[in-house]
Recover the amino acids of this structure.
C-alpha cells in the first residue's frame, strides 16, 4: 500500500510540473504555427538516446542525456535559422523534413544492433512507470528554473510569438526559446517517449486556445485539463496494465475531441 | 547483374508509382501548408488495419483490414473537413498534429496488447518495399490511375481550392466538398500503400520532392516534373544503397531524398552568394 502511494505520488508530482511548462511552451508553438517543431526535437532527443545505446551508453544515464542534448541543440539551431525565403516553402516543411530525417536515422542506427527496434518503440511509447525520485527531482528543479526564466522574459517571448512589435536581437531570443524547448524535450523524452512528450505540449495548449486567447487564463485552463486528463490516463494504465504513454495520450485525446465538439456546438464569431 | 535488376524491379516500380502520385499530391499539401496530413492519414489507416487484426485476426493485406482502414480514413476526412469549416481558433495543422499523436498512440496501445508488437511497429513505420509482389503493383497501378485521372480531369478545380485556402474567407459547401474529395482521394492511396511502403516513406515522398521542386520553380507543371525526377533518382540510389550495404529499403530511400534536398539547398545558397 505504502509502496503504491509512493509510486503514485512520484507520478502525480511529475505530471503536475510537466503539464504546466509544456502547456505554456505549447501555447507559443501553436500561435507561431510551427506545430511540429516539438515533434522534431522529441525525435532528435530519441535519436540521441539510440545513438548512445549504439555507442554502449545506458539509456537514462548522464552520458545518454548529454548525447540527446547535442542532437537537440543541433535541431534548435536548424529550427531557429533555417527559414526558407521562398514563400512556396512553409517553415513547417523544413520542420517536417527534420522530423523525417531524425526518425529515419533512429531506424537506420537501430537496424545495426541487436533488439534495436525495441528501443525505437520504447522511445516512441516511453517507460515512465519506471521513473525514480532523483530523476523526478532533477526534472522538477530544471522545469522550475525554466518556468522562472520564461516568466521573467515573458514580454519578449510573447512579443515574438504575437508579432505585434519588433524586439532587439530577435533571432537570439528565438534561439533561446528553442533551446529551452530542447532542454525540456531532453528531460522528458527518455521517460515519457516521443508521442507523450508531444501530446503534453500540444493537447492542453490546443484545448485552451479553443476557448481563450488570454495567456494567463489559457495557461490555467490548459494546465488543469492536461493534469486531470493525464491523471485519468495514468490510473487507467496502472490499474488495467495498459501501455503508459499511449494511455495518457489517448486520455488527453478524448478531452481534445470533447473540446472540439463543444466548440462546434457553440461556435464563436471570428 | 540481371538478377539484381530483376530482384530490385518490383520495389523500384512501387517507388516510381508512389513518386508519381505523391509528387503531385505533395505540391497541394505544401501549398495548403498541411504538411503532416499524410502522416496523420497513414497513421489512422494503420490503426484501422490493426483493429481488424485485433477483432478478426486478419493480416494487413486482407480485404477486411483494407475496409477497416478505409472506414477510419473516411471518418478522418469528414472530421478534417468539418473542423476546417467550423474551427478557426486553432489552425488545421494543429488539429492534424493532435490527431496524429492520438492515432500513433492508439496504434501503439493496440500493438502493446499483443506479443511481437515491436515488429508490427517497425513494419508500420518503414514498410517492406523489398518484398512487394507483382499483385500489389497491379492493384497500386489501378488505384493510382483512377486517382491520378480524377485529379487530372478536375485539376483546375483542385488547384483553385488549394490556392484559396489561406485567403481567410469562409469555405462554402462546394469548396468543402472538394476539400473532402481531396482528403478521400489521398486517403485511398495512402491506405493501400501504407502496408507496403510504411508511414515514413510515404511522408517523405510526399514532402521532400515537392519541397525540392518548389525551390526552383513556381509553375505547377515544372514543379511536378522536377519532383518526379528527384523522387525517381532518390529511389534508384536508395534501393542500390540498401542492396549494397544491407540496410532497410524504406529508410535508405528516405535518406537519399534528404541528402539530395540538402545538396540542392546548399547549391542554391552558394549560387545566390556568388551572384
Amino acid at each position: 500500500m505504502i509502496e503504491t502511494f509512493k509510486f503514485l505520488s512520484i507520478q502525480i508530482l511529475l505530471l503536475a510540473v510537466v503539464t504546466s511548462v509544456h502547456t505554456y511552451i505549447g501555447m507559443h508553438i501553436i500561435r507561431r504555427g510551427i506545430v511540429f517543431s516539438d515533434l522534431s526535437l522529441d525525435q532528435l532527443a530519441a535519436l540521441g538516446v539510440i545513438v548512445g545505446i549504439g555507442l554502449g551508453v545506458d539509456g537514462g544515464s548522464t552520458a545518454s542525456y548529454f548525447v540527446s542534448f547535442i542532437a537537440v541543440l543541433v535541431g534548435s539551431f536548424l529550427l531557429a535559422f533555417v527559414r526558407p525565403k521562398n514563400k512556396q516553402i512553409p517553415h513547417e516543411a523544413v520542420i517536417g523534413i527534420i522530423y523525417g530525417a531524425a526518425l529515419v536515422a533512429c531506424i537506420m542506427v537501430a537496424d545495426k544492433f541487436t533488439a534495436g527496434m525495441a528501443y525505437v518503440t520504447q522511445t516512441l511509447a516511453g517507460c515512465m512507470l519506471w521513473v525514480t525520485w532523483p530523476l523526478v527531482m532533477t526534472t522538477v528543479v530544471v522545469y522550475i528554473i525554466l518556468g522562472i526564466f520564461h516568466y521573467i522574459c515573458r514580454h519578449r517571448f510573447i512579443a515574438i510569438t504575437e508579432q505585434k512589435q519588433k524586439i532587439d536581437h530577435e533571432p537570439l531570443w528565438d534561439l533561446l526559446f528553442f533551446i529551452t524547448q530542447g532542454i525540456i524535450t531532453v528531460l522528458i523524452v527518455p521517460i515519457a517517449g516521443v508521442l507523450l512528450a508531444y501530446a503534453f505540449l500540444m493537447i492542453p495548449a490546443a484545448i485552451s486556445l479553443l476557448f481563450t486567447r488570454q495567456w494567463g487564463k489559457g495557461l490555467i485552463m490548459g494546465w488543469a485539463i492536461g493534469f486531470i486528463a493525464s491523471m485519468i490516463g495514468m490510473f487507467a494504465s496502472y490499474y488495467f496494465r495498459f501501455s503508459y504513454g499511449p494511455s495518457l495520450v489517448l486520455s488527453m485525446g478524448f478531452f481534445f475531441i470533447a473540446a472540439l465538439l463543444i466548440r462546434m456546438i457553440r461556435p464563436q464569431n471570428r | 547483374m540481371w538478377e539484381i535488376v530483376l530482384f530490385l524491379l518490383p520495389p523500384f516500380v512501387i517507388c516510381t508509382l508512389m513518386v508519381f502520385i505523391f509528387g503531385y499530391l505533395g505540391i497541394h499539401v505544401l501549398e495548403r501548408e498541411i504538411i503532416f496530413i499524410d502522416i496523420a492519414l497513414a497513421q489512422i489507416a494503420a490503426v484501422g488495419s490493426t483493429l481488424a487484426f485485433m477483432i478478426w485476426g486478419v493480416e494487413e493485406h486482407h480485404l477486411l483490414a483494407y475496409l477497416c482502414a478505409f472506414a477510419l480514413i473516411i471518418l478522418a476526412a469528414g472530421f478534417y473537413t468539418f473542423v476546417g469549416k467550423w474551427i478557426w481558433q486553432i489552425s488545421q495543422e494543429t488539429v492534424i498534429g493532435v490527431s496524429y499523436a492520438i492515432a500513433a498512440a492508439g496504434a501503439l496501445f493496440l500493438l502493446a496488447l499483443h506479443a511481437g508488437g515491436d515488429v508490427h511497429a517497425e513494419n508500420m513505420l518503414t514498410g517492406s518495399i523489398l518484398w512487394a509482389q507483382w499483385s500489389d503493383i497491379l492493384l497500386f497501378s489501378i488505384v493510382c490511375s483512377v486517382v491520378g485521372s480524377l485529379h487530372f480531369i478536375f485539376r483546375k478545380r483542385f488547384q483553385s481550392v488549394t490556392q484559396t485556402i489561406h485567403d481567410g474567407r469562409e469555405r462554402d459547401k462546394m469548396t468543402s466538398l472538394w476539400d473532402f474529395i481531396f482528403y478521400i482521394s489521398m486517403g485511398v492511396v495512402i491506405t493501400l500503400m501504407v502496408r507496403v511502403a510504411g508511414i515514413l516513406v510515404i511522408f517523405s515522398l510526399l514532402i521532400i520532392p515537392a519541397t525540392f521542386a518548389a525551390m526552383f520553380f513556381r509553375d505547377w507543371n515544372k514543379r511536378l516534373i522536377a519532383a518526379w525526377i528527384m523522387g525517381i533518382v532518390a529511389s534508384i540510389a536508395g534501393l542500390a544503397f540498401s542492396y549494397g550495404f544491407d540496410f532497410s529499403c524504406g529508410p535508405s530511400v528516405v535518406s537519399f531524398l534528404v541528402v539530395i534536398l540538402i545538396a540542392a539547398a546548399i547549391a542554391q545558397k552558394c549560387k545566390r552568394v556568388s551572384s
In short: Chain A touches chain B through 53 residues (CB under 8 Å). The first helix of chain A runs from residue 2 to 32. Chain A has one domain: 2-265. Chain A has a mean pLDDT of 84.
